[in-house]
């Protein structure tokens, strides 16, 4: 009799609440600060930029469960539950006794997990009477998700896409435009923040930090317009916990519980999304699952960054956030995993890493694509360059099990597919990709150039 | 209470047999003929080109149910059942009282329905001891599917991709290479058939007919190598009936039965795949479902072609097939729906059309993309240019229901997603796409240039 490969929930079983780990954390994240006064922010301080409900979610350290509004859960049903898949093909290719599972978020209509928060953010903005939303995007996965979510709720949407990705991944721009959004390459000449950078450095290829500055600036200068963010912030991670909450039920259907949970790491929402529902059992029920964030060696905020207050964007428009950072002026190398090219980590993850509740692993670009191609040939799904980092970390752990003979249960999040990133695979197969590394000295030198804020 | 949107089967409920409509047809398809002797072919005559079991399936007019081998069904479980989706968003966008459902084959790892037959064909070849397989591909969906299926069963795979698609859709080439296949643009200089065409017409952009000739020639000249085909043939359509058989169970879960079933039409396997399981109830149980094949106006074999014996490929390597054809020398316009650029229709569909068991509708390129963008904005999924034809036909029928007030149940097959076809959407959004039409005179003139074979 053949073994079951995929596990689904019925529409009724889809979770009705998101999990807010802040309420259960022993050491709460430090508060974001107003850069002018250095005073802790209240939700009201965020209202000029974000929808009110999202501002409240951002700073909520009290309620562990947040109700998912019915129209949001209703939209989830078009693609959720996403499958939990037992990766028999990958296990065989590695020759490991480990049991490898992945949560396949690539089956969402826009091809990644980003839609989970995009729908929620578009909904809360719409409910408040907002008519226009702005955002930044790296590889374009968040931008594509928000463009579609905006269309669903009848909002206008403007996206600043990091220039290197705008040029490397033209298909994602077309996808956003097909969904009806306006897309500009960042840095652009349409904002002060963009103009400043282009003036200093005309060949600047952009970064998420810069694109965020531009999107915030547009939101602040446009009537009835709010800004939205695709990762980093606590409310984004909150929405992504739908991944881990589903996975928890699905692992139960498979009769297993993960020893290790792995996700790639850009700002932290996909990592937190799959990890936090399981981490609550480490906090409350004495479980000992390991949580591994896989980040690129070229942008190693968790493995080489410093924990300090810093801005979330290049121009310094955001509140000051207590986080592991490479400095908001950090300009990452032009790796293909555009979604991981961000200088800082969300405040929740930063606190958890400081407290030893999780680990971080840095992965070089070539190792990430070695892993991605192995996975593609074993499982038939071409992973996003971002997700390749999670697969590389999974393979490292599975190889360790091969050495020790341990049948560990490893769960990773396949955050998206790589069908729009085939130029990256082309270059990899042609031997034209290279590794980029950032040393501790690079980081110290970079951080010394920014004003020590607090 | 919110209405259910998607219907799935459990792994146990996935069909265990394919449906062979040939056994139930009142008028059987005429036999394929040996071009030299003009005698009807036996399965043995096909063995030099195809795996033996596939050759037997091709000509089987006796058994209505063919057992799906366990290793094939086991691979199906990685992505099947595919969801049956109620398209509430599209219904609302049209304002129709019709109930629109689609079978979402785009969720397969390679992004289309093609994997259903690729897995079966690779398996039967492997079982017979074949080591290398060849094929042709248009847009690249079949080539991508076969490349992955070959990797699963440890076969070498060589693909001839129609030159226009090779250049328009470079990402699909990369996908095939990522799965480990060799890809050549067709016409190529590596075969006599390719060289002949390039000599006559150096700028020739290729067609499925030419690519088939090249792949067959390579298979015939390579030891332990067989040819495989992604559509047209009866055994390919047989494997695709998994779509309709699943849909039948899923429609039952939704408490409905289709009044109209629609699919786009290239060679017929996706159309037959979703239609034939329902058509058996027209044949045997007095149902009156309409079946509509949506083909491009630029390649209208069903609506303007003639029923006669013709070759399946440009060079004349295949048996003579009794089919609706534009002539095997027909060179279709360079539309983006590369998978529909084929001169003929499979023998089963040709007989059914002749017998009035189904209808055909021709769709112009601009109407197909109008429909695709409407669907993308309403449902979040960007459809393949081929699938846009099915959506356009669906919208026509749904508009008719809007006029009459009828709550008809329409089911269409979303054969694949269009994420690799974004250049086509780019050109559409920029107003740079055009319509191509073929007149009855064009067809007569074209058919008069080929020898009347029988």
Short description:
By secondary structure, chain A is of the alpha/beta class.
Fold and architecture overview:
Two copies of one chain form a homodimer. With 454 residues, chain A is of the alpha/beta class. Chain A folds into two domains: 77-111 and 242-453, Rossmann fold; 115-229, Rossmann fold (3-Layer(aba) Sandwich), CATH 3.40.50. Chain A contains 18 helices and 15 strands. In chain A, the strands form four sheets. Chain A has a seven-stranded mixed beta sheet, sandwiched between helices. In chain A, strands 8-7-6-9 form a four-stranded parallel beta sheet, with helices on both faces. In chain A, helix 3 (70-76) runs antiparallel to helix 5 (115-127) and helix 5 (115-127) packs parallel to helix 6. The longest helix of chain A has 20 residues, at 234-253. The first copy, chain A, is globular and about 60 Å long. The mean pLDDT of chain A is 95. Chains A and B meet through helix 3, helix 6, helix 8, helix 15 and helix 17 of A and helix 3, helix 6, helix 8, helix 15 and helix 17 of B.
């Amino acid at each position: 009799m053949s073994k079951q490969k995929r596990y689904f929930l019925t529409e009724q079983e889809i979770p009705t609440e998101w999990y807010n780990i802040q309420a259960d954390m022993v050491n709460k994240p430090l508060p974001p600060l107003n850069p002018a006064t250095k005073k802790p922010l209240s939700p009201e301080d965020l209202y000029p930029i974000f929808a009110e409900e999202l501002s409240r979610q951002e700073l909520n350290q009290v309620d562990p469960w947040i109700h998912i509004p019915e129209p949001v859960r209703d939209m989830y049903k078009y693609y959720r539950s996403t499958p939990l898949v037992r990766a028999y093909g990958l296990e065989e290719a590695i020759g490991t006794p480990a049991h490898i599972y992945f949560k396949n978020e690539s089956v969402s209509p826009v091809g990644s997990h980003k839609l989970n928060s995009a729908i929620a953010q578009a909904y809360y903005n719409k409910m408040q009477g907002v008519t226009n939303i702005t955002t930044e995007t790296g590889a374009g996965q968040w931008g594509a998700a928000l463009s579609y979510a905006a269309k669903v709720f009848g909002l206008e949407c403007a996206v600043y896409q990091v220039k290197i990705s705008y040029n490397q991944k033209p298909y994602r721009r077309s996808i956003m435009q097909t969904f009806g959004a306006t897309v500009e390459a960042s840095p652009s000449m349409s904002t002060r923040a963009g103009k400043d950078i282009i003036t200093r450095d005309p060949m600047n290829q952009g970064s998420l930090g810069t694109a965020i500055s531009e999107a915030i600036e547009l939101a602040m200068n446009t009537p009835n317009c709010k800004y939205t963010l695709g990762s980093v912030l606590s409310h984004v991670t909150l929405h992504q916990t739908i991944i881990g909450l589903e996975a928890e039920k699905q692992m139960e259907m498979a009769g297993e519980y993960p020893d290790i949970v792995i996700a790639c790491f850009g700002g932290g929402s996909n990592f937190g999304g799959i990890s936090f529902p399981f981490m609550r059992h480490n906090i409350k029920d004495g479980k000992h699952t390991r949580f591994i964030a896989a980040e690129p060696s070229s942008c190693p905020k968790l493995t080489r960054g410093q924990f300090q207050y810093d801005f979330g964007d290049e121009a310094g428009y955001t509140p000051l956030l207590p986080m592991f950072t490479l400095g908001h002026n950090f300009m990452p190398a032009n790796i293909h995993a555009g979604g991981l090219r961000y200088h800082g980590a969300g405040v929740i993850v930063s606190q958890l890493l400081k407290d030893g509740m999780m680990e971080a692993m840095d992965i070089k670009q070539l190792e990430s694509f070695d892993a991605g191609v192995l996975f593609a040939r074993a499982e038939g799904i071409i992973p996003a360059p971002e997700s390749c980092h999670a697969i590389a970390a999974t393979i490292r752990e599975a190889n360790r099990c091969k050495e020790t003979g341990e049948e560990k249960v490893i769960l990773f999040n396949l955050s998206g597919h790589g069908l729009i990133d085939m130029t990256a695979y082309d270059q990899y197969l042609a031997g034209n990709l290279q590794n980029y590394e950032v040393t501790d000295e690079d980081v110290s030198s970079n951080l010394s150039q920014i004003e020590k804020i607090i």
